[in-house]
Design goal:
The chain is α+β, with helices and mostly antiparallel strands and about 260 residues long. The protein has nine helices and eight strands. The chain has a single domain, classed as 3-Layer(aba) Sandwich (Aminopeptidase). The termini are far apart.
Length: about 260
Protein backbone atom coordinates (compact mmCIF):
# COMPACT_ATOMS: atom_id res chain seq x y z
CA UNK A 1 0.00 0.00 0.00
CA UNK A 2 1.39 3.46 -0.86
CA UNK A 3 2.51 5.15 2.32
CA UNK A 4 0.35 8.25 1.77
CA UNK A 5 -2.83 6.21 2.33
CA UNK A 6 -1.68 5.56 5.88
CA UNK A 7 -1.14 9.24 6.68
CA UNK A 8 -3.29 10.85 9.34
CA UNK A 9 -4.28 14.46 9.78
CA UNK A 10 -5.16 17.26 7.43
CA UNK A 11 -1.74 17.94 5.92
CA UNK A 12 -1.63 15.43 3.06
CA UNK A 13 -3.79 17.47 0.73
CA UNK A 14 -1.62 20.54 1.35
CA UNK A 15 1.53 18.58 0.55
CA UNK A 16 -0.06 17.21 -2.63
CA UNK A 17 -1.12 20.66 -3.84
CA UNK A 18 2.32 22.02 -2.99
CA UNK A 19 3.68 19.59 -5.60
CA UNK A 20 0.85 19.28 -8.14
CA UNK A 21 -1.90 21.27 -9.85
CA UNK A 22 -5.23 19.67 -10.78
CA UNK A 23 -6.50 21.05 -14.09
CA UNK A 24 -9.91 20.68 -15.74
CA UNK A 25 -8.72 20.50 -19.35
CA UNK A 26 -11.52 22.49 -20.98
CA UNK A 27 -9.47 24.65 -23.36
CA UNK A 28 -7.96 23.51 -26.65
CA UNK A 29 -4.46 24.09 -25.29
CA UNK A 30 -5.05 22.01 -22.16
CA UNK A 31 -6.67 19.19 -24.13
CA UNK A 32 -3.66 19.24 -26.45
CA UNK A 33 -1.47 18.67 -23.38
CA UNK A 34 -3.68 15.68 -22.50
CA UNK A 35 -3.44 14.21 -26.00
CA UNK A 36 0.34 14.78 -26.07
CA UNK A 37 0.76 13.02 -22.73
CA UNK A 38 -1.35 10.11 -23.92
CA UNK A 39 0.83 9.84 -27.03
CA UNK A 40 3.96 9.73 -24.88
CA UNK A 41 2.56 6.99 -22.65
CA UNK A 42 0.32 4.91 -24.92
CA UNK A 43 2.30 5.24 -28.17
CA UNK A 44 5.94 5.91 -27.30
CA UNK A 45 6.43 4.17 -23.94
CA UNK A 46 3.96 1.29 -24.02
CA UNK A 47 3.40 0.78 -27.75
CA UNK A 48 -0.35 0.35 -27.31
CA UNK A 49 -1.25 2.72 -30.15
CA UNK A 50 0.56 3.69 -33.39
CA UNK A 51 3.00 6.59 -33.34
CA UNK A 52 1.70 9.86 -34.75
CA UNK A 53 4.90 11.10 -36.37
CA UNK A 54 3.37 14.41 -37.46
CA UNK A 55 1.52 15.77 -34.42
CA UNK A 56 2.63 13.46 -31.56
CA UNK A 57 -0.91 13.28 -30.14
CA UNK A 58 -3.15 10.32 -29.27
CA UNK A 59 -6.88 10.89 -29.58
CA UNK A 60 -9.99 9.00 -30.68
CA UNK A 61 -13.69 9.35 -31.42
CA UNK A 62 -14.62 9.38 -27.72
CA UNK A 63 -12.70 12.56 -26.87
CA UNK A 64 -15.43 14.84 -28.24
CA UNK A 65 -17.89 13.65 -25.57
CA UNK A 66 -15.51 13.49 -22.64
CA UNK A 67 -14.39 15.57 -19.70
CA UNK A 68 -10.60 15.64 -19.42
CA UNK A 69 -8.45 16.15 -16.34
CA UNK A 70 -4.72 16.80 -16.10
CA UNK A 71 -2.35 16.69 -13.13
CA UNK A 72 0.62 19.03 -13.50
CA UNK A 73 3.92 19.00 -11.60
CA UNK A 74 4.25 22.53 -10.27
CA UNK A 75 8.03 22.88 -10.20
CA UNK A 76 8.58 21.86 -13.83
CA UNK A 77 5.20 22.35 -15.50
CA UNK A 78 5.38 18.73 -16.65
CA UNK A 79 2.19 16.75 -17.18
CA UNK A 80 2.18 14.07 -14.47
CA UNK A 81 -1.07 12.29 -15.33
CA UNK A 82 -4.37 12.52 -17.15
CA UNK A 83 -7.71 10.78 -17.46
CA UNK A 84 -11.06 11.34 -19.14
CA UNK A 85 -14.70 10.66 -18.32
CA UNK A 86 -16.58 9.48 -21.41
CA UNK A 87 -20.32 9.98 -21.75
CA UNK A 88 -22.51 7.46 -23.63
CA UNK A 89 -23.58 8.07 -27.20
CA UNK A 90 -27.30 8.78 -26.95
CA UNK A 91 -27.65 8.11 -30.70
CA UNK A 92 -26.17 4.62 -30.44
CA UNK A 93 -28.60 1.89 -31.41
CA UNK A 94 -26.52 -0.81 -29.73
CA UNK A 95 -25.06 -0.73 -26.24
CA UNK A 96 -23.86 2.44 -24.56
CA UNK A 97 -21.39 3.70 -27.11
CA UNK A 98 -18.60 3.64 -24.50
CA UNK A 99 -14.94 2.59 -24.98
CA UNK A 100 -15.47 -0.46 -22.78
CA UNK A 101 -17.62 -2.00 -25.51
CA UNK A 102 -14.89 -1.71 -28.16
CA UNK A 103 -13.26 -4.85 -26.80
CA UNK A 104 -16.35 -7.01 -26.82
CA UNK A 105 -16.71 -6.88 -23.04
CA UNK A 106 -20.12 -8.03 -21.84
CA UNK A 107 -21.02 -6.12 -18.70
CA UNK A 108 -23.71 -7.07 -16.22
CA UNK A 109 -25.38 -4.07 -14.59
CA UNK A 110 -28.57 -3.50 -12.67
CA UNK A 111 -31.24 -3.20 -15.41
CA UNK A 112 -32.62 -0.13 -13.66
CA UNK A 113 -29.45 1.84 -14.50
CA UNK A 114 -30.24 3.87 -17.60
CA UNK A 115 -27.62 4.27 -20.29
CA UNK A 116 -27.87 8.07 -20.08
CA UNK A 117 -26.86 7.88 -16.41
CA UNK A 118 -23.61 6.02 -17.13
CA UNK A 119 -20.10 7.22 -17.85
CA UNK A 120 -16.68 5.60 -18.13
CA UNK A 121 -13.27 6.48 -16.71
CA UNK A 122 -10.83 5.97 -19.56
CA UNK A 123 -7.35 6.72 -20.89
CA UNK A 124 -5.63 7.02 -17.51
CA UNK A 125 -2.01 7.83 -18.35
CA UNK A 126 1.05 8.54 -16.18
CA UNK A 127 4.50 8.98 -17.81
CA UNK A 128 7.35 6.68 -16.82
CA UNK A 129 9.26 9.29 -14.81
CA UNK A 130 6.22 9.77 -12.57
CA UNK A 131 5.53 6.03 -12.29
CA UNK A 132 8.84 5.19 -10.64
CA UNK A 133 9.86 6.15 -7.11
CA UNK A 134 13.43 4.90 -7.61
CA UNK A 135 16.08 7.63 -7.62
CA UNK A 136 17.88 6.36 -10.71
CA UNK A 137 14.64 6.19 -12.72
CA UNK A 138 13.02 9.41 -11.58
CA UNK A 139 14.99 11.77 -13.81
CA UNK A 140 13.33 13.49 -16.77
CA UNK A 141 14.89 12.90 -20.18
CA UNK A 142 15.30 16.11 -22.12
CA UNK A 143 14.73 18.29 -19.07
CA UNK A 144 18.29 19.19 -18.18
CA UNK A 145 19.69 17.54 -15.09
CA UNK A 146 16.45 17.71 -13.14
CA UNK A 147 15.91 14.80 -10.75
CA UNK A 148 12.92 14.57 -8.45
CA UNK A 149 13.57 14.89 -4.75
CA UNK A 150 12.89 12.14 -2.24
CA UNK A 151 9.88 14.14 -0.96
CA UNK A 152 8.43 14.41 -4.47
CA UNK A 153 9.02 10.74 -5.27
CA UNK A 154 7.25 9.79 -2.04
CA UNK A 155 4.07 11.23 -3.54
CA UNK A 156 4.30 9.55 -6.96
CA UNK A 157 2.01 6.64 -5.91
CA UNK A 158 -0.66 9.27 -5.22
CA UNK A 159 -0.95 10.31 -8.86
CA UNK A 160 -2.94 7.30 -10.08
CA UNK A 161 -5.31 7.33 -7.12
CA UNK A 162 -5.65 11.11 -7.36
CA UNK A 163 -6.84 10.75 -10.96
CA UNK A 164 -9.62 8.50 -9.70
CA UNK A 165 -10.37 11.05 -6.97
CA UNK A 166 -10.72 13.60 -9.78
CA UNK A 167 -13.10 11.24 -11.58
CA UNK A 168 -15.12 10.72 -8.39
CA UNK A 169 -15.36 14.48 -7.86
CA UNK A 170 -16.28 15.19 -11.49
CA UNK A 171 -19.03 12.56 -11.67
CA UNK A 172 -20.52 13.80 -8.42
CA UNK A 173 -20.45 17.44 -9.47
CA UNK A 174 -22.25 16.74 -12.74
CA UNK A 175 -24.54 14.14 -11.10
CA UNK A 176 -23.47 11.27 -13.37
CA UNK A 177 -23.31 8.72 -10.56
CA UNK A 178 -22.95 5.37 -12.35
CA UNK A 179 -19.32 4.86 -13.34
CA UNK A 180 -17.53 2.13 -15.32
CA UNK A 181 -13.80 1.49 -15.79
CA UNK A 182 -11.58 -1.20 -17.31
CA UNK A 183 -8.87 -2.07 -14.77
CA UNK A 184 -6.35 -4.63 -13.69
CA UNK A 185 -7.25 -6.31 -10.42
CA UNK A 186 -4.13 -4.97 -8.71
CA UNK A 187 -5.19 -1.36 -9.33
CA UNK A 188 -8.73 -2.10 -8.22
CA UNK A 189 -7.28 -3.46 -4.97
CA UNK A 190 -5.19 -0.31 -4.53
CA UNK A 191 -8.27 1.86 -4.91
CA UNK A 192 -10.14 -0.34 -2.44
CA UNK A 193 -7.48 0.38 0.19
CA UNK A 194 -8.39 4.05 -0.05
CA UNK A 195 -12.09 3.17 0.30
CA UNK A 196 -12.99 3.43 -3.41
CA UNK A 197 -14.48 -0.04 -3.92
CA UNK A 198 -15.44 -0.96 -7.46
CA UNK A 199 -17.44 -4.13 -8.20
CA UNK A 200 -16.39 -6.41 -11.05
CA UNK A 201 -19.13 -6.57 -13.70
CA UNK A 202 -17.52 -8.65 -16.45
CA UNK A 203 -15.31 -11.64 -16.95
CA UNK A 204 -11.58 -10.85 -17.26
CA UNK A 205 -10.21 -10.40 -20.76
CA UNK A 206 -6.63 -10.34 -22.02
CA UNK A 207 -6.09 -6.82 -23.31
CA UNK A 208 -2.80 -5.16 -22.44
CA UNK A 209 -2.67 -7.63 -19.57
CA UNK A 210 -5.62 -9.20 -17.79
CA UNK A 211 -8.37 -6.67 -17.17
CA UNK A 212 -12.05 -6.61 -16.36
CA UNK A 213 -14.89 -4.13 -16.32
CA UNK A 214 -15.66 -2.59 -12.92
CA UNK A 215 -18.56 -0.47 -11.71
CA UNK A 216 -19.08 1.94 -8.83
CA UNK A 217 -21.86 4.25 -7.69
CA UNK A 218 -20.16 7.60 -7.09
CA UNK A 219 -22.31 8.26 -4.00
CA UNK A 220 -21.13 5.04 -2.36
CA UNK A 221 -17.55 5.90 -3.34
CA UNK A 222 -17.79 9.16 -1.40
CA UNK A 223 -19.45 7.52 1.60
CA UNK A 224 -16.87 4.75 1.79
CA UNK A 225 -13.75 6.87 1.35
CA UNK A 226 -11.13 6.45 4.08
CA UNK A 227 -10.72 9.34 6.49
CA UNK A 228 -7.00 9.57 5.67
CA UNK A 229 -7.71 10.42 2.04
CA UNK A 230 -10.95 12.37 2.44
CA UNK A 231 -9.26 15.80 2.98
CA UNK A 232 -7.38 15.39 -0.32
CA UNK A 233 -10.59 14.37 -2.07
CA UNK A 234 -12.46 17.40 -0.72
CA UNK A 235 -9.67 19.72 -1.87
CA UNK A 236 -9.74 18.19 -5.36
CA UNK A 237 -13.54 18.45 -5.38
CA UNK A 238 -13.43 22.14 -4.41
CA UNK A 239 -10.79 22.90 -7.04
CA UNK A 240 -12.66 21.14 -9.87
CA UNK A 241 -15.95 22.75 -8.82
CA UNK A 242 -14.30 26.17 -9.04
CA UNK A 243 -12.82 25.40 -12.45
CA UNK A 244 -16.07 23.98 -13.83
CA UNK A 245 -17.82 27.24 -13.00
CA UNK A 246 -14.92 29.40 -14.19
CA UNK A 247 -14.30 27.63 -17.49
CA UNK A 248 -17.94 27.23 -18.45
CA UNK A 249 -19.30 24.98 -21.16
CA UNK A 250 -17.74 21.81 -22.53
CA UNK A 251 -18.38 21.46 -26.29
CA UNK A 252 -20.16 18.21 -27.09
CA UNK A 253 -20.71 17.40 -23.43
CA UNK A 254 -22.70 20.08 -21.64
CA UNK A 255 -23.60 23.75 -21.85
CA UNK A 256 -22.83 26.58 -19.45
CA UNK A 257 -26.51 26.63 -18.49
CA UNK A 258 -26.38 22.96 -17.49
CA UNK A 259 -23.21 23.50 -15.47
CA UNK A 260 -24.68 26.45 -13.62
CA UNK A 261 -27.83 24.48 -12.81
CA UNK A 262 -25.75 21.66 -11.35
CA UNK A 263 -23.11 23.65 -9.51
CA UNK A 264 -24.82 26.78 -8.22
Amino acid sequence: MPSFIRYKGDGVENEFFDLFNVIFAASDSDRLRVFSLRHKVYCEELGYEPIDTKNRVERDEFDGRSLHCLIEHRATGLSAGCMRIVFPDTRSLRGYGLPIEEHGVEIELDPEIRSEDLCEISRVAIPSYFRSSRVEEAAVDGFGEFVFSQQERRFFPMIGVSLFLCATAFTGLIERFHVLAMMENRFQRLLARSGIRFSQVSRPIHFRGERAAFYIDQRYAEDGMRGSILPLYRSIQDELSRQLIEKGSVPGVMSSKTLCKILL
